[in-house]
Structures are given as C-alpha cells and as structure tokens.
Amino acid sequence: MLVGCRRLSGAARIEVWDTGLGIPPEHERAVFAEFRRLDQGARVARGLGLGLSIVERLGRVLEHPVGLRSRPGKGSVFFVTAPLGRAALKPRAEPGAPEPIALGEPLSGLKVLAIDNEPRVLEGMRTLLNRWGCVVATAEGLAEATAALIEFGPPDVIIADYHLDSGDGVAAIRALREQFGRSTPAILATADRSPEVRDQASRADILVMNKPLKPAPLRAQLTRYSALREAAE
Hints:
The protein has 233 residues and is α/β, with parallel strands linked by helices. It folds into two domains: 2-83, 2-Layer Sandwich (Heat Shock Protein 90), CATH 3.30.565; 111-214, Response regulator (Rossmann fold). It is built from seven helices and nine strands, in the order ββααβββαβαβαβαβα. A hairpin with a 2-residue loop joins β1 and β2 (11-18).
C-alpha cells in the first residue's frame, strides 16, 4: 500500500494506492454503501463494510470530494480532495497547562457518555475525548450513568463496554435510550469478538468497536455522528 499527496490548484489530493484485487466498474459505487462488501474481498479480509461509507459521508459533509479509480486484477486508488488553507500560529502554552482546543474542532461540544467498569479505562477515555473537544460524562454502570445524566442531560453518543459488573453494555444502552425517548447513537467497545455479542449489538442498532480502541477509527465515527447531528438540527 502507498499513501501520497498531490498538490492541485488551491487544493491537495490525498491518495491511497493498493495492489489488491481491484474493483469492477459496475461495482465501484457499491463499495461506498454501508455494510456492503464485494464477495471476492470478503473472502480475503474480514470487515463490516463501514469504512468507505464513513469516509464518503464525511467527504460530503466537509465538501471534500472522495473518488476511486480501479483496474480489476491490478489494484485501486482511493482519493480525497481538500482545499488548502493557512495554518494559524499556535500560542505557546505554559508548562503543565492543558492543551487548548483548536478552533473549528468538529467534535467540539459533542456530549459523550462513557460506561466502563474499569476506572483507568474511563480516565483514559475522558482524557482522549476532552482533547478532541468533547464534553464527557463517565460511569461504571447503568445506575451510575443514570445518576450522572441528571445534570449532564441526554448524551449525543454513548460508548459502553459490554461486560459490566452488573448487566451488559447493550442492556445499559437500551435502558438509557428508553429513558430519554430517542435512539441515541451508541458504540459497544468490547474485547469480546464472539458472533453472539456482535449480533446482539446489531439487533439493537449499536456499532461494535473492538478493544483496545484505536483513536483514529473512534474519532472518525464520532465525527460522523457529530455531522449527522448537525445536519438534523
């Protein structure tokens, strides 16, 4: 795989090249659909069929066109075109001061509820999400989450571990959705990779992300939720 960038007039095109199976012309649009994978690719690598759909939606929201060129049997190149801008000078922070939130941060103000029975995991989640500009509430279970949300209010996104000390993350998400009367976007963060857990989450319209959570995919998914929230307002 090769990642490169081409400078265009007033823009930059970021390209990702591979030497994989390639995509037939009649299927090039299909690969951007949610939960859609071509049979030949599904046999070679695991996946849910969500990555390209997230990229394509974010591209539309940001007005950064996403494209594809492919030759069956030779490989593919995916690209996104972004306008060039001028970098703002970053003020020098005092030693030990928290890192300031960048202006225009797409996740600024996104209210996230994180549920996990491991305090260290919650602390790490809070630190990461705060750095992205999110407003965060944490809880070790459903009862603590319900109490925390009295002041916090309805969250925009719920991130819950599956195995909790009392009950499980899917049941907790369902209960919180019923409490607020809306289908809040939710992520099940779990090291349990069993089909049963994945099917249970799918039936409840909950996205599964395996632990340890990787910041880049998590940020991309939260950015998608934030964009959809703004589009609905």
